[in-house]
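User: Sequence recovery, please. Input:
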């Protein structure tokens, strides 16, 4: 939306700029005007569906047996959420009909307590407009312009039709650009709707090499070399090394080109955990990050601190009794107070939590932690306002613990407006964005195309035959050719071929977000004991043969803090190993060169303040461990010999 708003600001000069909003936000406005029920936050929805599923009696033997699996409730909750957003009927497969009954029961339970989940907003807003005697006062608009129409799901299109009613409606769609919709519905969107008038725009030649690469991945067309921009393959030994290379390249380009962190984007294929792990790894290497789909709630030290306080107030963790952070007198005062949220705010004030965050963290990280603290307060207020969750510290501890645990696994259903660092997100979230530099991670065959994985509840073979599953499953060759212009994976199984081409389109979407520089990043070995070799993505290998401007990135040297630290510590390991091999393998090592190198490192660390002193101690500890002067007992304690 921000990209479109920015464009309108420069184009619509002599008229009022139209209101730009998402379909869900617009539907929320309709629901707020016509319905008294409260829309649940993501955290409370997950908590309530978990409580609802505890002890739920399934009708099918398959689910009764599977319900003992530790991941069963989370997998069913995910399927329920997906089906709700799509308003999917689930009326053919017995197990899916069982899930449909659970969804109906859960929504009835929510309605009894005057709640809606976010996945119901589109369908409820559609019903509200259809049943309104006069919908005009509800929708203050004379015309509706729908952009990115290629991604509108069937419920979205029904709502849009109801919303437009007698208003002028114009829909703009990108041919061959759908990622979200084609995950659940095959074919171009024009196969599913009809308009009074249709106009097709001629495709313009790609202006840059990243755009030409995106066109090739999306449609298989090889354009003339635009000679603007660069597309490079950045290869590393392991996944961890790959992110180290990305961090170095970011810092090198910032130094050479004067770019800011916000000029960079790093894209992964999947949402949730994959995004969180990438964020965490980059932050450890000294790269500030931002994301529109993850909050960092599950990996936030401020949230962990609040959790310790809540556990102490719930008296459920005896080990916290000696925690120096938890002043007994303050805890006693909080226990005597009425309410959870106000007590938690009081503790944050008394302990100077926000002041400590502001002093210790960068502005971007501080802003993120402040937001997560605010979210913790909101969860406490939600617990207080419900009549089916006890307003006790014990109950709140369970709720906050679950929100913290599930945060890395689940995606936000609403966008987070947080800027300032390198943008890290999954490809779909980056679609139609624009960044000077984009890194596409893990461009290996195990990811692109990888294997289709819609759910852990059923084997892939069974899902492929479920016509009523909320996703593209029961397809034939005509569905594949109608949806994708590419044919890059030979397979006699349309289900696998469909999802392989879908993975290629995701890569195309990521490539299209790069304005000047595009990096396709890969690694050569799995970071496992077997050290298995990984193949580059077949899509990348094909592009490397067909696109002459696609080149390999050269070594950029050490530019990021994290890589410098890793190099320093690993250099000590390599030096000691080389010295040991002099006798056993006849290797010649220059001790003078080693002494000179480590003396230079020591001088550098001496002038680097506290960070240098910490690294110096870590380096000495590394050498002591290797030399046997320091060892760890079985209980993990360090012993000095």
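Assistant: Recovered sequence (641 residues):
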């Amino acid at each position: 939306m921000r990209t479109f708003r920015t464009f309108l600001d420069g184009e619509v000069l002599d008229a009022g700029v139209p209101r730009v909003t998402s379909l869900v936000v617009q539907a929320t406005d309709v629901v707020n005007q016509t319905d008294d029920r409260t829309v649940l936050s993501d955290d409370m929805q997950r908590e309530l569906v978990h409580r609802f599923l505890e002890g739920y009696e399934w009708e099918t033997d398959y689910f009764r047996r599977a319900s003992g699996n530790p991941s069963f409730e989370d997998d069913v909750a995910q399927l329920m959420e997906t089906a709700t957003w799509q308003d999917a009927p689930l009326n053919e497969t017995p197990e899916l009909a069982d899930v449909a009954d659970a969804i109906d029961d859960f929504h009835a339970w929510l309605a009894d307590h005057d709640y809606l989940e976010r996945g119901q907003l589109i369908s409820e807003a559609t019903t509200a407009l259809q049943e309104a005697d006069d919908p005009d006062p509800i929708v203050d608009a004379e015309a509706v312009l729908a952009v990115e129409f290629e991604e509108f799901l069937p419920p979205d299109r029904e709502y849009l039709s109801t919303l437009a009613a007698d208003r002028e409606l114009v829909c703009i769609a990108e041919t061959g650009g759908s990622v979200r919709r084609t995950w659940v519905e095959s074919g171009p969107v024009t196969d599913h709707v009809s308009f009074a008038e249709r106009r097709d725009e001629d495709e313009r030649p790609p202006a840059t090499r990243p755009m030409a690469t995106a066109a090739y991945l999306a449609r298989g067309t090889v354009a003339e070399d635009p000679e603007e921009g660069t597309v490079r393959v950045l290869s590393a030994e392991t996944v961890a090394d790959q992110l180290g290379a990305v961090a170095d390249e970011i810092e090198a380009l910032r130094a050479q080109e004067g770019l800011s962190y916000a000029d960079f984007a790093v894209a992964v294929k999947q949402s949730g955990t994959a995004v969180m792990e990438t964020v965490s790894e980059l932050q450890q290497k000294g790269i500030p990050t931002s994301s529109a789909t993850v909050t960092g709630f599950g990996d936030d030290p401020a949230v962990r601190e609040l959790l310790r306080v809540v556990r102490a107030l719930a008296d459920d963790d005896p080990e916290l009794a000696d925690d120096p952070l938890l002043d007994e007198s303050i805890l006693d005062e909080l226990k005597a107070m009425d309410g959870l949220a106000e007590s938690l705010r009081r503790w944050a004030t008394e302990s100077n939590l926000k002041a400590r965050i502001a002093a210790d963290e960068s502005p971007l990280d501080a802003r993120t932690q402040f937001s997560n603290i605010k979210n913790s307060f909101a969860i406490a207020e939600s617990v207080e306002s419900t009549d089916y969750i006890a307003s006790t510290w014990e109950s709140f501890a369970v709720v906050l613990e679950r929100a913290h645990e599930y945060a890395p696994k689940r995606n936000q259903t609403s966008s987070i407006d947080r800027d300032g660092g390198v943008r890290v997100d999954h490809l779909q979230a980056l679609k139609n964005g624009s960044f000077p530099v984009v890194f596409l991670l893990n461009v290996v065959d195990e990811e692109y195309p990888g294997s289709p994985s819609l759910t852990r509840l059923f084997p892939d073979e069974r899902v492929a035959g479920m016509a009523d599953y909320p996703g593209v499953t029961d397809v034939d060759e005509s569905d594949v050719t109608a949806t994708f212009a590419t044919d890059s994976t030979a397979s006699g199984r349309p289900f696998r071929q469909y999802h392989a081409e879908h993975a290629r389109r995701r890569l195309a979407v990521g490539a299209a977000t790069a304005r000047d520089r595009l990096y396709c990043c890969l690694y050569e070995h799995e970071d496992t004991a077997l050290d298995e070799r990984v193949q580059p993505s077949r899509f990348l290998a094909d592009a490397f043969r067909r696109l002459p401007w696609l080149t390999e990135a050269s070594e950029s040297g050490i530019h990021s803090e994290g890589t410098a630290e890793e190099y320093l510590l690993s250099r000590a390991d390599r030096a000691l190993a080389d010295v040991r091999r002099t006798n056993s393998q006849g290797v010649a090592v220059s001790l003078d060169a080693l002494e000179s190198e480590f003396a230079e490192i020591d001088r550098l660390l001496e002038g680097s303040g506290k960070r240098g002193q910490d690294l110096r101690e870590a380096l000495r500890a590394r050498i002591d461990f290797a030399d046997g002067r320091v060892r760890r007992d079985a209980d993990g304690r360090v012993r000095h010999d």
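The longest strand covers residues 514-523.
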